[in-house]
Structure formats: structure tokens, C-alpha cells
Amino acid sequence: MVSTSGLSAVRKGAALKHVYVTGHRNPDLDSIASAIGYAELKQKLHPGDTYAPARLGDPNPQTEWALKKSGARAPKFVPHIMLRVKDVMNQDVITSNWNDPIRDAGLAMARRGISQIPIVDDRGVLVGIITERDLARMYIRESREPSTFAHSPVSVSSIVSVLEGELAAGGDQQVAGRLWVTAMSLESMGKAMGSGDIVVVGDRPEAQLRALELGISVLVITNGAHPEREVVERAKEQGASVVRSPLDSYVTSRMIQLAVPCRTVMSEDPLTVGPEELISDITDQVMEVHYRGAVAVDSGNRPIGIVTRTDLVNPEPRRVLLVDHAERGQSIPGVDQAHIEEILDHHHIGDIQTKVPVAATFDPVGSTSTLVMERFRLHGIEPERSTAMMLLAAILSDTVILNSPTTTDRDRKVVRHLEEMLGVDAEEFGREMFEESSDVSRLSAEKLISRDSKTYQLASGDEICIAQVETVGTALLERKDELLRALEEARRSSGYLLYALMITDIAEQGTKLLLAGDAAPVEKAFNTKMKDNVIDLPGVMSRKKQVAPKLI
């Protein structure tokens, strides 16, 4: 904040491209790790921009274990990608103090080509706003009524300031009388002027003395004329102030009217918005106020930006890079309104639509983290150790320690490279991860069925949801009835055609499938029968390759 003559400004630096790199909702380890890794790589390749990893939900136990083990920082939680006030507001905001002359505010508006200026108190807190309409109303009022400062006292120091003049005698004081421009005889002056008034007069010593005899408070001598000694002495005797103005009498009188403090002209209770508010929520309010704008304020009600109608017309969308998914239902809320920079995924092509051509990779490997690490090596760059450990954990998670049918030679090659780089044994590392994070006994049924769930859209337009829990042993199946009730309740509330839960035993390398919805098509798809509300799928480990394609 820089203060000059009562005005202050917050300057905005050069705008940089800011891109959120994010995986899907209810993120698994691969979603979090690939966001961390790809954001790091992009940042190194494009240091002038900002690539920030983001997450759309809480980390699951595997991810928490990997974050703690690696020392990596969890990505920032981003609830949506819709435009907020801070994305469109002008941060180069000029404010004026409520005690400043309105001339200062008017000049600032003219210099910047703006139609309003926030007014703050001595603490910097917003107290009002001055608009072009406020200034116009003041001029119209002054042209129809006698000029008086009865309701808006003005200080001598402000008069000197707006005139860019000189205080020739007396001191600063508040004046609340009327404003006169002397064009009358000495006799007539006594019939109108009186105590507390301001009198503007040219090089007429007799008129100057007569005005002081009548008890006026401020004598303003125009055209740069110097007051005679007798005038100065008389002013001192009466406690009046004498001001020299370099301007002619007409302009001087108009400028003095601009010496009143901003607080006497400002509109109180201006429209304010918070920086995190959605522009879709504030647009109607901005259009309704006559100045077509809002003041963005911080938690202390201090101005930090201005949002005008122009800012709301075709604003630049926020930018996002999607990893480990390409389904709108799995993606960040508001993705349809965002500028998608790129898609990097190892699943099928989803239903994300873009407004402009976009680089998109859908590569059939076991993990998106494999694709990220391959790109590090392509550019001859090694990730930070914490990032490398996250990528290794994610690949081992998605491929179930390279045992999943989705595993490719490319996954194995990347794992071998990371083993050498980190000095760890991948199989031991993976087993430790699964053993440490497989205890889900304390989680509620609702949490279990939602923490790693993915929504898929069918050709009919209906949606199904498939959740997966990786564990060791059969303890979780003892909660089968509780889990089935949670599945059915979630299916009904979300309108899914089917809600399935895969309970995958990494030791036995098989899955028990729990279903809410019509089981007949599922039985047909897997050529098996449900028993006690469970479909046994030996050898099935992958949701992406072995379950989702059949159910879709």
C-alpha cells in the first residue's frame, strides 16, 4: 500500500498463468501422486508460470501413508474451478481517505479513467464510495442553491491544497459558513456577509478590509495578488485566515467547493463482495447498483479490489490440467467452465468436452504415475526424492505391487528405475504400504463406499458408481449387511442405476463384489451367480480393466 497526498493504491504485478493440476474426486494414491509429480515437472519446464497440485477430496489411508513416508506435502484442497471474484477483480485499486478533499478523489478518477473510488477511514476500513453520479449531484445542487458549508465544514488546509495556493496569514481551522465571490459595493457587502463566511476577492484592499470587518473566517485573494500589511494585521487581530490563490476568482470559488471532505459526498454502504465469492452469485447485484461495480474486501473490510460490469463480460476462465481421469462426473466441479490445459490419463476416454483443442493422452499402462515418470525421463529431469517416492507408491498401489492384469512392461521399467534412484526394494516397499494402510475396521460404512469411488456414464445416460477397498483377509465381509444398506441408500440418493463395492484381497488376489441395484445384468456380465448378496470374482484385481468395462 503506497500513500500519496491521501490517496493509496494496491499495485498488481505482472499476471502469470496459474494452472491447477488435479486428479479425480475421492482421490486414490495415483490421483494425488500424479498431480504432485506432473505439477513439479510442468513447473520445471515452464518456470514463468505456476502449476499447483490440487486435490478434490481427503487423502485415503494409502495416500496418507505415502505422504508421511515420502515427506511430500499434500496438495491444496480445491472445491471447484468456477470463477471467483479474485479471479476477475482489478487489484490496482485506488482509495481515498474520508477526510481528503473530494478534488483529490475526482482527479484520481479522471487520471485512471474510472467511475468510482472507495473511501476508507483512518484505519483503511471501507466506509463509502464516491461515484461520478455523486460528483454530478453535488455540482447540480451547488448551481441551484447558495454555496454553503453548513452541512459539510471545510478546513483552511484543504482550501490551500485544492487551490495549490499559500496561507498568507492565520492558521488552519474548520469553516461552516457561506462562500462569496465579491462583485458588489462595500455597502452591499454588509447586507450579506457575516461571521464564519469565506470571501473570494481580487486585488481590492478596501473590499478585503471590509470583509474582515464583517467577521468573516477566511479571505481568499485571487490572481496571485499579495495582501497588504494592513490586511494581514487585521486578519491576525480577528483570528481570520488569509489565503493566496493563483487562480482567477471564478475558478477559485469552484475549486473551494471541491475542498469539502469525501465523507460529506460519498455514498454509504457500497456493494461489497468477498474474494472467494463466485462471480455467478454476484453478477445480478453488480448490475443492479447504479455504478455497476462492487468493492472486494478482505476479512477486515479493507478494499483489495474492484469488480465492474466490464470485468464480468467474457472473463478469462481458470485453468486446469487433468490427471488420472477424463470423466466429467469424476472431475472438479465447474470443469465445463474452465480452460483445460491438458489431460493425462491411463483410463478410457471419458466425456470431458473442451472448447478448444487440447493435448490429451490416454495411454494403457497400469498407473498415471508411470506416464508422469516417463515424461520426467523424456526431458532428462529427475523428480525430487519425495515426489519420486510418491510416484513409486502410486504405481505399486494401482498395479497391486505389479500383480494386477493392468501391469505393463513400462510400469515394471519405471519401478526398476525408481528402485535404483531411491535405494529401496519395491516389493518390500509395496507390502509395507498395503499392510500399514489396509486396516479399515474403524471407518464407517458410508466412508468405506465413498472414499475411492468412481462414477461412470452409460450410453443410456444413466450413471453407475464403482467403489473399491483393498484389504487383507475377510474381516470386512463380516460387515456385509451394513455395507449393503449404505450402498442402497447412496444409490437411491444419488440416482445411480447401480452402486458396486469391490472388496479386493491383495493377498488372495481376488475380489468380492457387493451390489445395490439389479444384480441380473452383473451376473450375466461375469457369467456367475450371486451368493448371499456377494459375487465372487477370483483373480479380479482391477476396477479399470476387469470390472468397469463389463458393467459399462
UniProtKB/TrEMBL annotation:
The reply on keyword Manganese is: yes
Give the reactions, separated by semicolons, that this protein catalyses: diphosphate + H2O = 2 phosphate + H(+)
Looking up SMART domains in the UniProt record yields: CBS (SM00116), DHHA2 (SM01131)
The answer to whether keyword Metal-binding applies is yes
What are the residue boundaries of the CBS domain, all occurrences included?
89-147, 266-322
Q: Which domain of life is it from?
A: Bacteria
PANTHER family in the cross-refs? BNIP - RELATED, MANGANESE-DEPENDENT INORGANIC PYROPHOSPHATASE-RELATED
Give the protein name, as stated in the record. Answer: inorganic diphosphatase
Organism of provenance: Rubrobacter taiwanensis
What lineage does UniProt assign to this protein's organism?
Bacteria, Bacillati, Actinomycetota, Rubrobacteria, Rubrobacterales
